[in-house]
Specification:
5 helices, 7 strands, globular, three-stranded antiparallel beta sheet, two-stranded antiparallel ribbon
Length: 167
């Protein structure tokens, strides 16, 4: 992913107000991010731990999505879960249900779309082997190359982003 400025990130959000985008906290390690290892920027807001943010590269420029942790998180009853973005298996605490308000009028009416995703939003690092999930069970062996797994992850993100941004 190409490095982004704070201004680019804040102006990219499609499902929150300009004021909300101005108030969100950037990742604590923003100044030292290893952009070359990222396929998207994802973080839990350090000032509001029940909020998370994704910024995806698109042909039209970055697309930001604000997310929240719903009050009912059903993963706590599961022993293990799989991220819907990168398909990494985790202990139940390693995957969270995040809900994104839809862009526009539908979002203002309270409509959301949810996704189960790595709790730390580090999907790119899991796929590249730079971070390991805390899971007692063995990970599934995949025959796909890294490039194919990254393309699958991007396709999964694109589908989710299209649901959020659809007018």
């Amino acid at each position: 992913m190409e490095p982004l400025s704070e201004k680019q990130i804040r102006s990219s959000f499609v499902n929150c107000t300009k004021g909300e985008a101005a108030r969100l906290k950037l990742p604590l390690d923003f100044a030292t991010l290893a952009w070359e290892d990222l396929d998207f920027l994802g973080w839990v807001d350090p000032g509001a731990p029940l909020r998370a943010h994704l910024v995806l590269p698109t042909p039209d420029g970055p697309l930001g999505i604000s997310l929240r942790v719903p009050s009912l998180n059903r993963t706590s009853a599961m022993k293990s879960s799989i991220c819907q973005v990168c398909l990494t298996g985790h202990a139940s605490s390693g995957v969270r249900l995040l809900a994104a308000p839809l862009a526009g009028a539908r979002g203002r009416e309270g409509n959301t779309v949810g996704i189960y995703v790595c709790a730390d939003l580090a999907c790119s690092l899991y796929l590249r082997g730079k971070r390991q999930p805390k899971l007692a069970a063995k990970q599934f062996e995949e025959t796909l190359s890294l490039d194919e797994r990254l393309a699958r992850m991007q396709a999964n993100l694109d589908v989710f982003a299209a649901k959020v941004a659809a007018a």
